[in-house]
Amino acid sequence: MQQRYSLRGIAKALKIKSLHFFGFLMLFGLLFSSGSGLFASKAHASGGSENEVIVQLEPGSDIYNINMLLGTTLVRPLSLDRTFLLAVPPGTTAADLVSNLQTNPAVTFAEPNFKMFATEAQQAFIYYDQGSSLENGTSSPEAVNIARKQWAWERIDLYKSQRYGKGNGIIVATLDTGANNHASFNNQLIAGYNAITMSSDTSDDSGHGTFVAGVLAQVAPDASIMPVKVMNSRGEGTIAFAAEGLYWASNHNARVINMSFGLYNRSKLLELTVKYAQDRGNLLIASAGNSSTAENRFPAAFPGVIGVAATDSQNHKASFSNYGDNARVSAPGVKIYSAYYTGGYAYGDGTSFAAPQVAGLAAQVWSRRPGNTADFVSNRILNNAISLVDDDPVYGAKLGKGLINNYKAIQSA
Fold first, then answer.
1. Residue in 352, 367, 378, 392 annotated catalytic
2. Which among 49, 139, 157, 176 is annotated as catalytic?
3. 208 catalytic, yes or no?
4. The pTM is what?
5. Which residue, 120, 139, 186, 364, is most buried by CB atoms nearer than 10 A?
6. Are 43 and 294 in contact (CB under 8 A)?
7. Looking at 133, 184, 204, 208, which residue is catalytic?
8. Which burial class, exposed, middle or buried, applies to 135 when counting CB atoms under 10 A from its CB (0-12, 13-18, 19+)?
9. Does residue 129 have an active-site annotation?
10. Kind of pairing, strands 48-57 and 107-117?
């Protein structure tokens, strides 16, 4: 099949027609695919909103008094108790406003409304397979066969595991760019939520979310997939959107929540919302990140979250994958074949596409033992992973418990 590198936004903006120039763009993207280049800089990944701050008040305090004192305006109340999103007044920076709020005895905490990213969408790590979609909109038989026989599924013993559980009865929420329906989803998509517009429109205008949902659908084909849109067409969102999406999913019967995004700032709002979902019995999965660093990236590095690193076909750390405390386990994350948001299939590289494999495995295990807790499911996943120390002497000990093995995990349930 012909394969095309998908730099959709750049190609459209520049109206690129030259195959030679397109090849240059392709090479340019790949040169930075290690995550250490321009697009993956941690400064970019940690950038904060210049115009908004988040504040939580002490019990009995009134946001009206804060607004009168500091000239702020309410953008929207947030779902976490006594927490608000405020607009920064003209002539003031978010940093200065946060400093002022932190000295106010009525304030529990204040922080900028940090930006967070799906780095694969930022870096164009999704490569559309041009021949995978037929004229009538269906996927070609060859594409379906490639999806079924891709190397990753053999590596994690997927098909052996699916004899014992496919996720039936388990709702998995994907906090992402939304998800468009796809022939490979087997009617798995259910109603979700758009935390950006506060609506039910979860259409995907990026492709990242549909690709993530497609990975999940292949691993757990009987699970229900609940798309929660927290990022825009550029794969960019804020912690306010992420926290609202997470809160909504936790309160709408999701048991597993996949978060293929992150930031390098430790957000108090996101941390409290993660804890809220965990206290409600949710199992949270997050991508480790694509900057090839051990620097903590959140939510993957929060306690109790299963952060997922990416491996390649040699059982080595993928060149771009984060490691250390960001990774409690690993899954294949190079040349993954999944659903493309306009139809057909694409290849993708990234920890974002390793994470939904673990979310799918969680659904498999939970469907086999639906009465058990998130801790039980987490332990089955982690304790049955295969060590990577021998395969990757440099990074193997830094990739969590090792490579997931779906068959061993579900057999132990």
1. 352
2. 176
3. yes
4. 0.88
5. 364
6. no
7. 208
8. exposed
9. no
10. antiparallel
User: Token digits for 155?
Assistant: 């590596």
Confidence at residue 122, expressed as pLDDT on a 0 to 100 scale: 65
pLDDT tens digit sequence for 252-303? 999 999 999 999 999 999 999 999 999 999 999 999 999 999 999 999 999 9
Q: Say if residue 330 is exposed, middle or buried (CB neighbours under 10 Å; 0-12, 13-18, 19+).
A: buried
**Is 298 within 8 Å of 269 (Cβ atoms)?**
no
Q: How far is CA 194 from the centre of its chain?
A: 15
- Residues 216, 226: contact at Cβ < 8 Å? no
Distance CA 356, CA 185 (A): 14
The Cα 154–Cα 307 span in angstroms is 22
Residue 257: which of 335, 192, 312 has the closest Cα?
192
- To 5 degrees, how large is the angle CA 341–CA 343–CA 346? 70
The secondary structure of residue 80, as a DSSP letter, is S
Residue among 96, 65, 100 at smallest CA distance from 82: 65
Find the farthest-apart pair of alpha carbons in the chain and give their distance in angstroms, rounded.
64
pLDDT band, residue 49 (cuts 50/70/90): low
What pLDDT does residue 228 have?
A: 98
Judge whether 205 counts as a catalytic residue. no
Residue bearing the bigger pLDDT, 329 or 127: 329
Q: Across the beta sheet with 83-87, what order do the strands follow?
A: 73-77, 83-87, 48-57, 107-117, 236-238
How many angstroms separate the Cα of 215 from the Cα of each of 182, 209, 364?
A: 12, 10, 14
Domains defined for the chain, CATH in brackets = 48-115 (3.30.70.80), 119-411 (3.40.50.200)
User: Structure tokens of 66?
Assistant: 């804060």
* Sign of CA pseudo-dihedral 7, 12, 18, 24: negative
Structure tokens at 382: 């982690």
The answer, yes or no, to whether the previous bond of 89 is cis (omega within 30 of 0) is no
